[in-house]
């Protein structure tokens, strides 16, 4: 080793922290209308679901369940969502644009994963904790998608919380719950915008957050 090698911080902790912070802050919601029709390799979907499975859960109940729609099956999902919206939406809340979007989203995104929460038989762990565990799993999915460069969107229109939706994904409507749809697809190329083409990261949407200091109470 040359004598003038600087004492750079290459310890694993700082490298892991830098990598984790970069990925967490890079994770962005990218909606189906911003996705193009390039196919998502099934191995990427498998990696995303594998990482979901490493989420924490109280008593290791692992309450997350996934129903993956790809190819023509997405048309079944789109048709079901539209039917459910018509069935469940009060006349005063009905919006034609929302109905249309429910039919379009599963077809614009190459993969639509319907997220389920399944209670354990004993129901000892409170429902809220099972929902929290599934949210951790979805965050793992979203982080993994962002690491790959895939667009992802956790969508929760009110119809996902209905008994019909639970049954649709083979869950028990009395105990279990659908927690939304996770859309996955490649983000649309930036097109002819020269500035956006100058660097890969310029195409990725920028996030926005308020100050964390306002959300913290320190007690010493
Ligand atoms: C539990 C949950 C449900 C969400 N449901 C919706 C939704 O139904 N529609 C929507 O436009 N965005 C939804 N979002 C995405 C948020 O709009 C998005 O996370 C927020 O705008 C911040 O953007 P970012 O994810 O790029 O940081 C949801 C996010 C979470 C965590």
Main pleated sheet: 4 strands, antiparallel
The class by helix and strand makeup works out as alpha+beta
Sum up the overall morphology in one term.
globular
Q: How many helix segments?
A: 8
The whole-angstrom Rg is: 20 Å
| CATH domain topology of the domain at 29-70 and 109-189 | NADH Oxidase
What does this structure look like?
This protein is α+β, with helices and mostly antiparallel strands. It has a domain at 29-70 and 109-189: NADH Oxidase, CATH 3.40.109. It contains 8 helices and 4 strands. It has helices at residues 12-26, 42-52, 73-88, 96-108, 127-148, 163-168, 194-197, 200-203; strands at 64-70, 111-117, 151-155, 177-185. Strands 1-2-4-3 form a 4-stranded antiparallel β-sheet. α3 runs antiparallel to α4. It starts with 11 loop residues before the first helix and ends in a 17-residue tail after the last helix. The model is unreliable at 191-199 (pLDDT under 50). The structure holds flavin mononucleotide (FMN).
